Structures are given as structure tokens and as C-alpha cells.
């Protein structure tokens, strides 16, 4: 089927028991609790985990639902039980994904002049609007070579780290989020990325930098802001994360859209200024492959 791929795997058939038990432990559920949620018996679940029984395809998918197993890993569990994968992986640019692709691009362009970006499970950047790209001004060229990784951009000494004025707490936030995502998804790519970025060494004083609050309103913040120097001033943002509900395609399931909002009136005023608009067009050339396509 052109444009669609069924992920391959080398999991040994009928070795579903240990894998299922591992996911149950990861979610801190007892056999009884999981059995009740999946509408089966704890005895049958015990037999499955010890290899004395094989779950039906329908039961296995119910167990995956209750364990909140990511769709990529659901395919691996299905193959481990001897079944065919259930979820395809379609490139976002394929015609089959036109509606989803259009929704992503509308969100990115509609969010201007505030930054917004799209990345996958491995934190690789898929797309960004012009305001987000403008914040990358000054980042080392090698960090902008595909695949561009948003965590690496934020934490690398030659990335955005030097311009983030509350870098100590922002680094702690990113590392915590990355570690949590790695544990939740069981994705080895995230484990490797975590070990890489945690080991970065910084110039003296960078990690000791205290958060800077442009005005008193930030003392009562409800979300940890990102403070970053850009355009000769300091901008402050908080962010929200959006994902697709009930996706049945791996690509869609692994997309995250992060939108940034001004955390103070100074940032809002700057982003709505003609000065910022001129900066966008100077810093981000037309035709960048990461920018949304005009429709």
C-alpha cells in the first residue's frame, strides 16, 4: 500500500506474557485491578503473563487500552502474541493525512504572532511557525541540521541555553519531562536523548543563573515560564500542549503541538509590534521546510 507502512519488529511470537507484565508494572496495577478494568478474570490474566494462555486479539487490545500503551508499542505486543500489527504509520505529507495536516498548519499559522511548534515522540521537530523559528536565531548551525531535536535545541550549550535567563529551572523542567516521557512510552530513543542532554557541560555561571521576573505579576505565576532574550529584550512565555484524540495512525498518535503564550504584558506588546514582524521576516527566510505551507 503506497505511502503506508506497517512497522516491522523482531519480537519472538507468543512471548506476550513478560511484555504484558512489564507494562502492568510500569502502570503500577495489580493483576486484579487490570483484570477488572479489561473485563477479564485475574486467573486468565495470570495465565497469560506466565505463558500458559494466549490472549485473543480483542482482549489484548482491551488490555492495551487500559494500560494506555502507545500505539507503536501496541503493534509490538500484537506481534509478540502472534497477531498482525493493527496500526499503520503514514507520513504526514501523504494525501491520506490531508485533514490532519491542514489542522496542524491552521493551528500554527493561526497562533502567530506567538510561537508554536510540532514535534514527534523522539522530540524531533516536524514543523514550526515563523515566531518559533525566529527564537532560534543564533543557534549553532549543526543543531539546525535535520533531524532538529527540540530538547537538544533547548539544552545544548550552543543552542538556546545561553539566552534562557531562567535556564536552571527550565533545564530541570525539560529533563523531568523527558524522563517522564521515556518511562511512559518505553522509547529507547528518549532514554538515549536523556542521557545525552543530562551530560552537557555549561560555561561557569549558566546553571546558577536565577530566574528573572520582568514585572511583579510573575511572582504569582500559575505555570513555570520560559524567559528568553530575543530582539534586544527579554520575552516570557508559558506553554500548552495539544495532541490528537483517539488516533489510529502511529504518525498522528506521536505528534505533539506545543503553543507558547505571553506570560506578561511586555511580551505580548513586543510580539504584536511592527518591530517583531520585521524581525520575523529578516530572521526566517521564505520557503523554510519547517514553516507551514500557505493554503
UniProtKB/TrEMBL annotation:
**Classification via SMART domains:** HTH_XRE (SM00530)
Q: What is the scientific name of the source organism?
A: Streptomyces atratus
Q: Where is the HTH cro/C1-type domain?
A: 20-74
> What is a single molecular function from GO for this protein?
DNA binding
> InterPro entries recorded for this chain?
Cro/C1-type_HTH, Lambda_DNA-bd_dom_sf, MLTR_LBD
Question: Which Pfam families has this protein been placed in?
Answer: HTH_31, MLTR_LBD
Q: Which PROSITE patterns match?
A: HTH_CROC1
* Top-level taxonomic group: Bacteria
Q: Which residues form a coiled coil?
A: none
Q: Which PANTHER family match?
A: BLL4672 PROTEIN-RELATED, BLL5781 PROTEIN
Q: Could you tell me what this protein is called?
A: Transcriptional regulator
